[in-house]
Amino acid sequence: MAVATNSSALKSAHAGGLSTLIEAAKARFDRYRMYRQTVNELSTLSNRELADLGLHRSMIRRVALQAAEDHTAR
Fold it and tell me: Rounded to 5 degrees, what angle do the CA atoms 16, 10, 21 make?
């Protein structure tokens, strides 16, 4: 009987790990989607518009990464 109880506990832990893995993958995909959207939107701006925002074109990826991390941290 102890073996059956122990086995069901292992199955439940494994199922919990799978749901955690799925949630982590979903969060990572959401962060990536936000990153790509931000990069695409900032890339369409002219150099003058970026300068008005206090940005240089070389800063787009870093700003997008920070925005994606801040968005998923909420």
Answer: 25
